[in-house]
Q: What sequence folds into this?
């Protein structure tokens, strides 16, 4: 079978497959983290401008933005998908180098609202989208991540699979939805190698494109079923080293949605092991930032490629700056949304310290990527002491997960400034009960 057919066959079986409470619980956690990510995203300039640009598709339609405003389904998917990524706090699946929630949940929510699905159907669609897309991301490998932003490319398949489930596509139509989605998949890493607003539109377009692919397949539109493994297909064109031989082996037995990373800091996740390592040394040795002479971070190469700004001038650059976030953590004790406000960007203590932060690639740590996200942090103090800490993973990774109260606290912290305390409490209660007959938010 072609890869499209492997996934389509599983999707047909999945309709009859009960999900364990363990898997459903992790699906609820993914949705809660998505809502924690989406509300601060609505406060960003790119999303505000996007809403202005597509205004003719708002205040009409069958779906809603996370803020409650009515929209057409594809526009809701587009805006919600972009907002969920814009503040850089969305989930990730390490092995696929991919943030699955932004596009997958945005498309699933729009499709569920359009067809009147209940909370359980929505959660099942989210699970399927994660399982299909994360496996595609793993197969595409590190070669794909060299140039392409997986959250835009691979995210299209998460969106298509979740929407296809809710639109009740049969096995053949599901395969065609994935095939058409492949021709929509895009998102270049160069889009955020300099200061720009383009990055959050990658998962926004992925959500919109995946939903559209499912809608087209529902109406009989066909795609090239060999789009993944063909000579001019997705794998060859956008990776060169894609390995499809094991893509469906663990479907239905091993659920990737149970092994997500939820961000414990605000910013680029590639910088998080450095933040965690610096804070660990600070706690262990009672370090005052004023006593730090030098900081050196050794980590994996993609972290340096993406979190690349050594002297950030804007809030967007600061989110992708290892020196800035490490200096911020040591000076202020954390890296939250306030870290990127103008006064904090210009904070003289942070600016002085970031100039003394250097970064390099550690070959051994790099060899562990993408399965492990590690950093070695070395702090030299003014009194001559040299302190070293190897951070093997990040708080929020499967090895050190956020527990349910921590995850709900993240939702409260990030959503409350936008929608208010009462609305957050109501939303949290509804999300934890989605599979128990609870209506969609």
A:
């Amino acid at each position: 079978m072609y890869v499209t057919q492997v996934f389509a066959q599983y999707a047909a079986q999945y309709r009859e497959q009960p999900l364990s409470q363990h898997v459903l619980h992790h699906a609820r956690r993914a949705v809660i983290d998505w809502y924690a990510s989406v509300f601060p995203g609505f406060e960003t300039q790119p999303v505000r401008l996007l809403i202005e640009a597509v205004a003719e598709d708002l205040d009409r339609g069958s779906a809603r933005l996370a803020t409650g405003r009515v929209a057409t389904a594809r526009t809701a998917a587009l805006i919600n998908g972009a907002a969920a990524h814009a503040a850089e706090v969305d989930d990730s699946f390490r092995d696929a180098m991919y943030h699955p929630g932004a596009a997958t949940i945005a498309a699933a929510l729009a499709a569920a609202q359009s067809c009147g699905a209940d909370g359980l159907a929505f959660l099942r669609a989210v699970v399927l989208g994660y399982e299909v897309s994360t496996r595609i991301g793993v197969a595409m490998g590190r070669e794909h991540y060299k140039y392409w932003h997986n959250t835009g490319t691979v995210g299209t398949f998460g969106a298509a699979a979740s929407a296809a489930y809710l639109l009740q596509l049969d096995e053949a139509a599901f395969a065609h939805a994935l095939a058409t989605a492949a021709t929509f998949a895009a998102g270049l890493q160069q889009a955020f190698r300099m200061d720009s607003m383009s990055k959050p539109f990658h998962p926004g377009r992925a959500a919109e494109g995946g939903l559209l692919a499912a809608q087209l397949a529902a109406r009989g539109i066909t795609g090239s079923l060999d789009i993944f493994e063909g000579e001019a297909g997705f794998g060859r064109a956008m990776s060169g080293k894609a390995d499809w031989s094991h893509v469906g082996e663990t479907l239905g037995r091993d659920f990737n949605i149970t092994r997500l990373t939820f961000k414990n800091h605000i910013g680029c996740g590639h910088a998080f092991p450095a933040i965690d390592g610096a804070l660990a040394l600070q706690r262990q040795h009672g370090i005052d930032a004023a006593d730090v002479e030098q900081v050196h971070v050794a980590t994996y190469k993609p972290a340096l490629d993406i979190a690349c700004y050594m002297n950030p001038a804007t809030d967007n650059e600061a989110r992708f700056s290892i020196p800035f976030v490490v200096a911020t953590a040591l000076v202020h004790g954390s890296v939250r949304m306030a870290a990127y406000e103008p006064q904090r960007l210009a904070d003289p203590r942070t600016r002085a310290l970031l100039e003394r932060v250097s970064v390099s690639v550690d070959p051994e740590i790099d060899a562990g990527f993408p399965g492990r996200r590690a950093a070695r942090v070395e702090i030299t103090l003014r009194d001559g002491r040299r302190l070293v800490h190897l951070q093997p993973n990040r708080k929020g990774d499967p090895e050190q997960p956020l527990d349910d109260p921590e995850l709900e606290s993240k939702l409260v912290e990030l959503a409350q400034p936008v929608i208010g305390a009462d609305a957050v409490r109501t939303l949290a209660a509804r999300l934890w009960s989605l599979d128990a007959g609870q209506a969609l938010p």
Remarks:
- The first strand starts at residue 58 and ends at 64.
- The chain has two domains: 3-264+402-432, 269-391.
